[in-house]
Write a structure and sequence with these properties.
Helix content is 7%, strand content 49%. The N terminus is likely disordered. The protein has 1 helix and 19 strands.
Length: 300
């Protein structure tokens, strides 16, 4: 592709086709406490786009309006031309709370490319929620090629949003493969793996959970990709049931996805009804890496 608009249109067109698949898939429904309340003030905020060039690493931040809290978010790596399309992956999807809550996204060239690309972050924000806190869990600092972290919400709370971050690795050496909540929503998981040629340095990965007292209608929904073999790219979409909206977005490859596979898109749609996930082989492989999933954390 040779323009942002054509590239965006191509992915959105694919994602629309996945909605029927996602709608046919089951969801994990949690029992709602009688004291639970609906979330108010829910909105999606876009970050400014990063520079469009061939810089090896780019970070952007979407900030919530003053007075609102972060509940979830996502990111999208856009390749302007075909030379960069399959060489990029997400390395940070991080919710944070500060003077203005937000969601920070980093993407990197896992394989060097001279093609131009850019990245954008998305924050899902809401009025202050009961019990809101961000919990983390980090793996040991090591040179293990695949690392898996989890963040556990305090008893009785549920993850309304998730995130993941690779720490200390050199640019382009490690990619995210998993950033999602569990089915019951009590924990979140993050997985990262070194690129296909390996990495001799030490690194670790952090999982993030935005934990709250369970809101009314809380539900974790998954949608699987139709691609289930050794395809070079895979796309999945998850849709909230009628009347519910997306509060958190997540994505995951299979747990045994090979090195050289990484997440490229975790996208909550503007209407906050659906989530799209996209993963790529940054290094071509004949290995079967099964389906990927998109995740929507839904509530009223």
């Amino acid at each position: 592709m040779h323009s942002r608009n054509r590239n965006l249109a191509r992915w959105v067109s694919r994602a629309m086709g996945m909605v029927l698949v996602a709608g046919a898939l089951g969801a994990v429904q949690l029992t709602t406490a009688t004291s639970a309340s609906a979330v108010t003030g829910l909105e999606k905020v876009h970050s400014p786009a990063s520079a469009t060039d061939s810089q090896a690493s780019k970070t952007v931040t979407a900030r919530c309006p003053s007075g609102k809290q972060i509940v979830g978010g996502g990111g999208w790596v856009h390749a302007v031309d075909r030379y960069a399309e399959d060489n990029l992956a997400l390395t940070q999807l991080r919710p944070f709370d500060s003077y203005r809550d937000g969601y920070r996204v980093t993407a990197e060239e896992i394989i060097y490319t001279s093609g131009n690309w850019w990245v954008q972050a998305y924050a899902i924000c809401a009025d202050p929620m009961s019990g809101h806190q961000i919990v983390t869990g980090t793996t040991s600092y090591s040179s293990q090629e695949k690392q898996h972290a989890k963040a556990v919400c305090p008893s009785g709370k549920r993850a309304i949003g998730s995130g993941a971050r690779i720490n200390y690795a050199s640019t382009g050496e490690v990619a995210l493969q998993i950033a999602r909540a569990s089915g019951p929503g009590d924990i979140t998981r993050a997985q990262a793996r070194e690129e296909a040629n390996g990495y001799s340095g030490k690194w670790n990965v952090t999982a993030y959970a935005v934990c709250v007292n369970r809101p009314y209608g809380y539900e974790v929904v998954y949608g699987e990709s139709s691609e289930r073999d050794s395809e070079s790219t895979k796309t999945a979409t998850a849709s909230c049931p009628s009347g519910k909206r997306v509060h958190g977005a997540g994505a995951a490859t299979s747990g045994n996805a090979p090195a050289g596979v990484g997440l490229q898109v975790v996208y909550p749609y503007n209407d906050l009804r659906r989530v799209m996930a996209h993963a790529v082989e940054t290094s071509p492989t004949s290995a079967d890496w099964d389906f990927i999933v998109a995740q929507a954390i839904c509530a009223y």
